[in-house]
């Protein structure tokens, strides 16, 4: 397979006489004056002549694989979402991911960072003392590859003038420029509700203030992890439009069932483009306080148990459960009959309901 320079793709095959002529004479094109920005029209038309190639040429391009940053699911330039109800542990998980990436280490027994990567963790909600003492000190986050931006520190260091707002394009441009200059490969935004002022979470059009910025970051190889709250129905709060471009989405729910001092939560992928569902099974996380700080462990959750959890959480259809767990509808049907016999759920006209 031949390797081509993206900048010179136009040289690989004869240009379309029509398009080439239009590109060269863009200033005289009749459509030019109908646009709000004639100069941008010129640039777009010339770029189209270089970027558009035949299917045969396109297939011949040597496009490098995106490297895996956190095995098995997280790749360079990803856009991922972590969501959970309040207090379930989404900030803990986000910090653990950032720590592993910055150190090139493993989280629990299942997720492994391949090497060290520069991380910027942007916190827009927590009190700075809680962030540093309760979280970072407990997790022993001390890598020089892990940087933090607290909304409180930005306010104080700006002379009490700047209030962090990533719905503002000036803040977006500044954060993007900083990430590029510092070689940041992962930006963690914790969280949607407090970092984007004026954004209407339930309005799809409102997300257009943010999605082009995230897409631009991805094109530059900077992965973005967005931390969100879950609504009362257990799904991500607000419009589903922000989920469309995500490579993966992790749902997190509290799992503490006793008075143990350990924090426990469950994670499951509701979407993952990078790997098959079997490669990212549901996990039970336990964060244990030790004399040396908090240690995290993970254990795989049995799919049958996960099926029951989904039904108890409001899933009623075999189709949606099969999609969520990456199983066939026949498999889900067998589990449903077993669960009904075990008196864990009941089946009512094909709908799965809590017992």
Automatic annotation (TrEMBL):
InterPro entries assigned: P-loop_NTPase
Q: Which domain of life is it from?
A: Bacteria
- Name recorded for this polypeptide: AAA family ATPase
**What is the source species?**
Sulfuriroseicoccus oceanibius
């Amino acid at each position: 397979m031949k390797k081509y320079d993206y900048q010179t793709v136009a040289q690989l095959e004869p240009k379309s006489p029509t398009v080439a002529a239009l590109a060269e004479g863009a200033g005289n094109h009749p459509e030019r004056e109908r646009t709000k920005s004639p100069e941008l029209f010129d640039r777009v038309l010339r770029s189209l002549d270089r970027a558009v190639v035949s299917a045969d040429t396109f297939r011949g391009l040597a496009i490098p694989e995106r490297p895996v940053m956190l095995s098995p699911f997280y790749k360079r330039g990803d856009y991922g979402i972590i969501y959970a109800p309040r207090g379930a542990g989404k900030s803990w998980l986000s910090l653990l991911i950032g720590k592993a990436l910055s150190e090139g280490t493993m989280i629990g027994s299942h997720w492994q960072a391949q090497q060290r990567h520069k991380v910027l963790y942007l916190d827009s909600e927590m009190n700075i003392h809680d962030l540093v003492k309760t979280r970072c000190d407990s997790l022993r986050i001390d890598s020089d590859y892990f940087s933090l931006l607290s909304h409180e520190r930005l306010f104080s260091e700006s002379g009490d003038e700047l209030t962090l707002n990533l719905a503002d394009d000036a803040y977006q441009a500044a954060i993007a420029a900083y990430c590029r200059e510092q070689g940041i490969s992962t930006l963690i935004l914790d969280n949607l509700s407090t970092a984007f002022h004026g954004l209407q979470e339930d309005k799809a059009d409102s997300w257009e203030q943010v999605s082009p910025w995230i897409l631009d970051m991805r094109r530059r190889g900077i992965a973005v992890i967005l931390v969100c709250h879950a609504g009362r129905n257990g799904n991500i709060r607000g419009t589903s439009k922000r989920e469309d471009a995500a490579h993966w989405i992790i749902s997190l729910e509290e799992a503490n069932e006793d008075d143990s001092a350990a924090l426990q939560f469950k994670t499951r992928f509701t979407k993952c483009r990078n790997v098959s569902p079997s490669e990212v099974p549901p996990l039970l996380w336990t964060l244990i306080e030790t004399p040396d700080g908090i240690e995290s462990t993970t254990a795989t959750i049995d799919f049958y148990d996960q099926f029951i959890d989904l039904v108890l959480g409001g899933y009623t259809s075999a189709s949606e459960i099969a999609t969520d767990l990456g199983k066939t509808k026949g498999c889900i049907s067998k589990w449903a009959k077993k669960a009904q016999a075990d008196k864990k759920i009941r089946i009512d006209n094909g709908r799965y309901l809590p017992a």
